[in-house]
Amino acid sequence: MRLTLTTIAAALATCTVASAEPPMKPPLRAEQANGLSRPHDAALSPDRQRLYLTDMANSRIAVLDATSLALLGHIGEGELSYPHDAEFDADGRLLVADTGNGRIAIYRIDGAAGELVGELGGLAAPEGVAVTADGRVVATNTGSGRLSVFRDGRLERTIGAYGSAPLQFVRPHDVDAAADGRLYVVDSGNHRVQVLGPDYALLQSSDPGLGLDEPKYLAIDGDRLWLADENNHRILLLDRRLALRGVIGASRRGRAEHAFHKPEAVAADGERLWIIDTHNDRVLRFEMPQ
């Protein structure tokens, strides 16, 4: 593990999409790159003590201390195939988008250990998974351009189709569920985010003026949304209306404190921000300004 400290701080921006956004440079507190290979997304444990990271190219989950980013162990070795996303449900089980096996793998978690206890199958290369407030599981069928909704372990419905019209998707990468029932779908191949209501009707699409290029994973952090804009090598801070409020990173790749190479994901808990810098094979933890 490599630990880096800095005293740089920045305030959140309040400009509109049409105006130039000043770069955000929150203080970097920790970095982990030990043995990771194309890490994708991460789930914070319910007690906020551990980070469960999909170590995609190693086909396993890396368990990290959420503060120091020290490696605590691995889960799923020999069971997972190129996992992309992870999410905890209300019972504390870890749901993993097990992409290569076409399923959502379900693990009972005990610290840095986990036991495979179930699965939701029949999916087409799922890369995203979310759990709604009422306990439904929503998965992205990244290979077919659809969403699958499960209730009590059974497929309840399928949403969308492959294409570029409203409520159609091309390589949907992530889905996140807000407390109010809204679903945020990162429609990577169409370079947009689509927002669905609790009835799965389309409420909004992101403004093309954001200039997204293959956005990947999104994190809901209260009234803030953090979006990894992969091919632009940056992280966007959006409000709930999908208006731009700040940017971390630049439009070119790098490996400095605030420079990334195709970052895929973000995790946040209101005080801390973890950026998964995928093609630099590392995770960074930042302290966020209040």
**Low-pLDDT windows of residues:** 1-20
Q: How many separate domains make up the residues?
A: 1
- Tell me the quaternary state: single chain
Q: Which percent band covers the strand fraction?
A: over 45%
- Note the run of SSEs as H and E: EEEEEEEEEEEEEEEEEEEEEEEE
Report, as a whole number of angstroms, the end-to-end distance.
27 Å
By CATH reckoning, the class would read Mainly Beta
- Mean pLDDT equals 92
Biggest sheet strand order reads 1-24-23-22
Q: Mind telling me the C-alpha Rg? A: 17 Å
Main beta-sheet annotation: 4 strands, antiparallel
- CATH fold annotation: Neuraminidase
CATH architecture: 6 Propeller
Characterization of the model:
This protein has 290 residues and is an all-beta fold. The protein has one domain (28-287): Neuraminidase (6 Propeller), CATH 2.120.10. It has no helices and 24 strands. The chain has strands at 28-32, 39-44, 50-55, 60-65, 71-75, 83-88, 94-98, 103-110, 113-120, 126-131, 137-141, 146-151, 154-159, 172-177, 183-187, 192-196, 202-205, 215-221, 224-229, 234-239, 244-249, 265-268, 272-277, 282-287. The strands form 6 sheets. The chain has a 4-stranded antiparallel β-sheet, with no helix packed on it. The chain has a 4-stranded antiparallel β-sheet with strand order 2-3-4-5, with no helix packed on it. The protein starts with 27 loop residues before the first strand and ends with a strand.
Keywords:
290 residues, four-stranded antiparallel β-sheet, mainly beta, 0% helix, Neuraminidase, disordered N terminus
